[in-house]
Amino acid sequence: MIRKHFAGFAASAMALAISAQAFAGTVTTDGADIVVKTKGGLEVGTTDKAFSFKLGGRLQADYSRFDGFYTVNGNTADAGYFRRAFLELGGVAYTDWAYQINYDFSHNAGGDNRSEDGYFDEASIAYTGFQPVVIKMGRFDPDFGLEKATSSKWVTAQERTAAYDLADYVNSHNGGMAVQVSGTYGASLYGSAGIMANDATNQDKDGDSIKQVNLRGVFAPMHEAGNVLHFGVNYAQRDLSDTAFDGRIRSRLGIRGVSTDGGQDAGTNGNRLVLAGANNTPAGSFDTDSTWGLEAAFATGPFSIQSEYLKREVQAKAADREDIDADGYYVQLAYTLTGEARDYKLGKFDKIKPANKSMGAWEVFYRYDNISASDDNGAFATRDDVEAQVHNFGVNWYANEAVKLSGYYVMSKVDNATNAVGDDDGDGMVVRAQYVF
Fold first, then answer.
1. What is the pTM of this model?
2. Which range is the signal sequence, renumbered to this chain (predicted)?
3. What pLDDT, on the 0 to 100 scale, is given for residue 238?
4. How far apart are CA 11 and CA 4, in angstroms?
């Protein structure tokens, strides 16, 4: 509780401190004038753009029901939870420095076992004086994948593709710190390279943390809303040679409620698919953990199609170990019934802005996920590849630029794995109420 109050106090104090710098222009005759904006949060800045801050946030309240493979006994369970509850503070200081602080009070946006009082989803400083190159430092998610680049506020389905579950380290900071260099070349090329000291819980015997490298490149010859052609390639690698770690590759198959840190879930009856690996994998078992990713997207008017492919290899180090391989992909189709085009910024999709303020914008979508893994170590040595297919059907209502109501239905089928009563398929539904400011 003390940490929760302290986080709130710290955010308020920082906002006041930064605004004090910005407001210097109002108390001296030679300072810059102040501009205050209240649409989409509170934003204050000087007219010369040397100082600014914006206070905003997002709230996502989810409810889901599911059965079959999603529960241990196959019976219906439900879950109600805050998927995200962010307070966000960002802005500019001294023209060339940008900062962003996002605090998640739901402790449910990242991986497992987040702090009960929340945690810093992002706390970063960026130097922008070398435009179009940006140097970013601090805690933030590394750059990997099109769906991850798209904000959780505006991603099409409530949960991102199950393919990301095959290599959950590639686009999550896991409590680590990073440095990233990114930039654009012209209007069509984007690239980033980052190095991270990843996950304070995974260290070698000397206390040295895992080091991770991420690379991403995007080519978008068409890059305007309703007129997009996008291609991307990603690579991530980390060294596991001297580290004990949780080596499980597992997935919730689109239903976060089977196991969630942000509120009520299915408890001990929630069933999460394990495709490969083992918990508490001892140091010296494996060596390099590398993941490749490809991405492509096309949009014309209110229609869009996008796809990503991931391939991961965990190389064995010990003589009694075998390599672990996993790969997965998704294909997603989306159409805005009310005719609006989805916004696009180089390297990522963005929001849909309703043209009719009273009716809002209506979007329907379908996504197919396919994931598989091969592991000849331990419990998985006697079974063939574990594979899963997930069908996601959904609808989004953008009531306005702040409120979004969503729902989707999920059907999954698993090969070579079942729950305790032999179910190898399951159904579920998730509804979400979202407010952003």
1. 0.89
2. 1-24
3. 94
4. 11
